[in-house]
Specification:
- This protein is of the alpha/beta class and 344 residues long.
- It has 12 helices and 10 strands.
- 38% of the residues lie in helices and 15% in strands.
- Helix 3 crosses helix 4 and helix 9 runs antiparallel to helix 12.
- The longest helix is centred in the last third of the chain and has 18 residues.
- It holds the Pfam family Aldo_ket_red.
- This is Aldo/keto reductase.
Length: 344
């Protein structure tokens, strides 16, 4: 397993990490992902650790805390062998303080997560969404207190816009608070919006990307192809409305290119889609999920080899879309600045 620095921090994370959204799954979304209990989760974690995957990502909102509970039970007795990443800020109840990133909410959310995980510290806490109602200084000062108390090691965000990340980093620098070192983002061959603004920001400011849904919300499994109906057992029947939309023709064009590269490499469509991400700027780790051992072992096969430059170009061309304003004029310039930090 390849290990990479997480942004500008000193923490090294595996190129692949495991998403625990399938643990304890319940409800229309997470129930469709999977519902591994502690015994099954322990087996999947065993396989991960054997392969060098030691970062496990979850969130309090995943099955209303059940994912954290199952993960905590599954790693019991080997806490020092794993890195735990969890998220908070999305609603965990109907009360006025059950959502957001206020001081009250963050302190309670961290304490609750520590209990569910059965640990006294979290390696990486990420804010699951930007809270426009809470002053950023309040958020950062609270995170600073939790880091100083030893309950958090590193902090990051998820699904923030560029200005939200940049303003937070500026205020962190101004007041001496911990900087965000990670941004958990949606990024895939059928969802490259991350590249327009957030990737250049990550390069410039030392914020590493943890990629969620690398298979385009289940569309790049190799089971969806032009002219064929959606497979009967596809979870997209139940979950498509929860995820980012994808134009059908764009999807088929990408899948056609993936099929071509699969014939050249002997690798599976998911393995190729993940490997492409691992060669993109700022990507520190790609979060993979699995409902069973077979899926997990297939995803683990995405590392230990690399696509050629010609294969990368094929996939780049097939997945290319017109950038939104104000980014599209610069796409015409060779050596577009989004793939390298500005000169100083």
């Amino acid at each position: 397993m390849d290990y990479r620095r997480l942004g500008a921090s000193g923490l090294k994370v595996p190129a692949l990490s495991f998403g625990a959204g399938t643990f304890g799954g319940s409800g229309p979304l997470f129930g469709a992902w999977g519902n591994s209990d502690a015994t099954e989760a322990r087996r999947l974690i065993d396989i991960c650790l054997e392969a060098g995957v030691n970062l496990f990502d979850t969130a309090d909102v995943y099955s209303n805390g059940a994912s954290e509970e199952v993960l905590g039970a599954a790693i019991k007795g080997r806490r020092d062998a794993v890195l735990i990443s969890t998220k908070t800020s999305l609603p965990m109840g109907d009360g006025p303080n059950d959502a957001g990133s206020s001081r009250s909410r963050l302190i309670k959310a961290v304490e609750d997560a520590l209990k569910r995980l059965g640990t006294d510290y979290i390696d990486l806490l990420q804010l699951h969404a930007f809270d426009a109602a809470t002053p950023i200084e309040e958020v950062l000062s609270t995170l600073d207190s939790l880091v100083r108390a030893g309950k958090l090691r590193y902090v990051g965000v998820s699904n923030f816009s560029g200005w939200q990340v940049m303003k937070s980093l500026g205020l962190a620098d101004k007041h001496g608070y911990p900087r965000y070192v990670a941004h958990q983002v949606y990024y895939s061959l059928v969802g490259r919006d991350y590249e327009w603004e957030l990737m250049p920001l990550g390069l410039d400011q030392g914020v590493g990307a943890l990629v969620w849904s690398p298979l385009g919300w289940g569309r790049l499994t190799g089971k969806i192809r032009r002219g064929e109906p959606l497979p009967e057992k596809s979870r997209l029947h139940d979950t498509a409305s929860f995820g980012p939309p994808v134009d059908d023709e764009h999807l088929y064009r990408v899948v056609d290119a993936l099929d071509t590269v699969a014939q050249e490499t002997g690798k599976t469509v998911p393995q190729i889609a993940i490997n492409w991400l691992l060669q993109r700027p700022t990507v520190a780790s790609v979060i993979v999920g699995a409902r069973n051992e077979q899926q997990l072992r297939q995803n683990l096969g995405a590392v230990g080899w690399s696509l050629t430059s010609d294969q990368m170009k094929k996939l780049d061309a097939a997945s290319e879309v017109t950038a939104p304003y104000p980014y599209f004029p610069y796409r015409r310039q060779e050596g577009f600045a989004r793939l390298s930090p500005p000169a100083v």
